[in-house]
Amino acid sequence: MQTLSSKYGKALEVGHLVGSEEIFDGEVQERRNPADHQDLVCRFPTASKDIARRAAQVAKKAFEDWSRRPAPVRGAVLLELARVLTREKETLVRLMVREVGKTFKEAGGDVQEAIDTAVFFASEGRRLYGQTVPSEMAHKELFTFRRPVGVVGMITAGNFPIAVPSWKLIPAVLAGNTVVWKPSDDSPALSYVFTRLFEEAGLPPGVINLVFGGGQESTGQWLVELMDEGLLGKFAFTGSTAVGCWIGEVAGRNLLRPTLELGGKNPLVVLRDADLEQAVEGAWWSSFATGGQRCTSAGNLIVDAPIYEEFKRRFLEKTEATLVGNPFENPKSLTYGPFINQRLFQRWNEHYAWGEADGAKLLCGKGRIMGSNLYPLFKGNPDAGIFGWPTVWEAKPGMRQFEQEIFGPTINLVRVEGIEAAIQAANAHSYGLSSAVYTNRRDWAYRFKTEIKAGMTSINNSTVGAEAHLPFGGVRGSGNGTRESGVWVLDEYTYWQSVNEEYAGKLQLAQMDTAYTDAKTPTNWSELLG
Ligand code: UN1
Prior knowledge:
This protein is of the alpha/beta class.
């Protein structure tokens, strides 16, 4: 690694980390601060298929030793990781603000989520429980053990550049696996530093290998294809539904179970009895936190008719007070910063044309914020990066913007009449990640949580806000039912081995040699009792 000076701090020049080697091979790309393109953050190479393959081979070799270390010893590395992450939290936060354009507050949450995950799994190394199971025969004992699955290929997105990789890397290594990780090309510097911090915490070389590059027809695709070469025992992916489906196909033909955390179009429902102040606050945060670039961001606000106009008035008032700008130069006040990348901006920008063509009504928002299209509450130089107006529509089920995920600051208000119609609208898309309802009626909350098709549901809270020890994941187009975080994720990084031990000194056959007791001649109870 080398450092160069840049506008808001140092830029890193890094290579792939394979075993104890840093490899600089491959076409070099640059990552620039999305809020200010003059600020170079990282130069990083693109790994060829050969490098990805070599990383998998190194990981396979490292597995031999790492998987044999006792789980509490592996867990101790994670306790140390929690310490080094805590020590470096501020540095990581500053780097995250520069590299992906989050606000300081949200970057702090992102790093804290990794610390929490490390703390949780450090002690999980002292559990990683299996069961003792009674045998149907004497002098025989049965047990279950969790065993690691081998080398895990991972691809992660750049919107949660530390938290989401930590959900995968930490449980994977705790369970004794080794990893080849291809992070988003939006967050190479953070991924590099994160991997180095694992090493510093005592993780042996080769347990986590880092390869940089793009997705399609680049390192990501080549890494996925290593499943066909028998080099991976598992794949874990956070990203789009289309790519997730393809990874699922490759994994399926190799009989591997992938972890797939995919898109969302998360509904937030506000019913007529809701506390409106709370609902407006939660809806606004769900819509505009991270500039709408979370997979848990709200997609549609579904509002009950009797309170619709009042909610709309208050929501627009709150939206119009949203502060947007360059987070690095405005450490305290902003709601959101720039688009993480050009691709997300293009999709968001395109939805203005969808809205117009599909007959949605634009209530607030004027596309890209620029010097020539200034948003009144913008802070900084809008032309230095790519920023979007907070955008609010009135839309209906069936419209593209109602159904399709759009990463960016935009939200639809959808008017419905009553709980029945609200739940129907909340399910009228193909995803199922998170969901929320604002109501004080327990029966409505109950109906919502039982009838909504989503992996995560909030009652009187926003659509975002996962915690490190609660399962995270979706259903339908949002994933394949796998879960991250908490004890549940261990099922994704281990398989169950059943063991039976024979102490009888002879072969005892289950079912055939089992000494079941004989039933007696039946008594006719109805005749006896008359
Ligand atoms: C994501 O957007 O991929 O609950 C993850 C949340 C965050 C994690 C989001 N803690 O919104």
